[in-house]
Amino acid sequence: MIRNTASSWGGVARALHWVIGPTILVMIAFGWWMNHIPARPDRFFYRSIHADIGYVLLVLLLVRMAWRLINPTPALPADTPRWLATIARANQWGLDLVTLVVIMLGWAHSGAHTPDYSSWFGFFHVPQFTSPDKETARAWEDRHIFFAYVLLALAVLHIGAAVWHHRVKRDDVALRMVRGAG
């Protein structure tokens, strides 16, 4: 089953979830590590890899958001309180929107940084939409980091909800993202 149904996630949604979600967590950890290692000559290399993966995530995220718009979202169990369903929906969209904000802020930082991080794994240059400026680059980076922490908080809430559904409620909500069937 490729498409979502009213009761389960399809193969495309599950694949995008399991590629994007763990990659975001790795990128946050990698970003934290990059900002906490002592200044080294190879720091630009690590930041370039971080940016390259960020560009890939942007494409995958846009595909995921488009896929969500043209596919149904599986319903929560009938006994889910309305307030909890609202929080779940807000968290789902918040994850996508904040991920988009984090990526766009990182991309803005890339163009403002000298040298920029536009070379995509050495194959081609990603167009930049900001101009080189040291102070502006620092401001973009500060916002990028702040929203990465917001994204981490939303991800922790999302993971916590999945564990709660699986271990406490013992329903199939979390399993639908693993095996698809509701």
Describe the protein in words.
The chain is elongated. The longest helix is centred in the last third of the chain and has 36 residues, at 134-169. Helix 2 (43-70) crosses helix 3 (82-112). It has a two-stranded antiparallel sheet with strand order 1-2. It has 182 residues and is mainly α. The mean pLDDT is 95. It has helices spanning 11-36, 43-70, 82-112, 134-169, 173-179; strands at 119-120, 124-125. It is built from 5 helices and 2 strands; from the N terminus they run αααββαα.
Q: How many whole angstroms does the radius of gyration measure?
A: 18 Å
Taking the sheet with the most strands, its summary is: 2 strands, antiparallel
Low-confidence stretches: none
Strand adjacency order, main sheet: 1-2
What pattern of helices and strands is seen along the backbone? Answer: HHHEEHH
Specify the overall morphology: elongated
Cα-to-Cα separation, first versus last residue: 12 Å
Q: DSSP helix count?
A: 5
Query: Tally of extended strands?
Result: 2
Structural class: mainly alpha
The overall pLDDT average reads 95
The fraction of residues in strands falls at: under 5%
- As a percent range, the share of helical residues equals over 70%
What are its keywords?
5 helices, 182 residues, mainly alpha
Give a quick summary of the entry.
With 182 residues, the chain is an all-alpha fold. Helix content is 70%, strand content 2%. It has five helices and two strands.
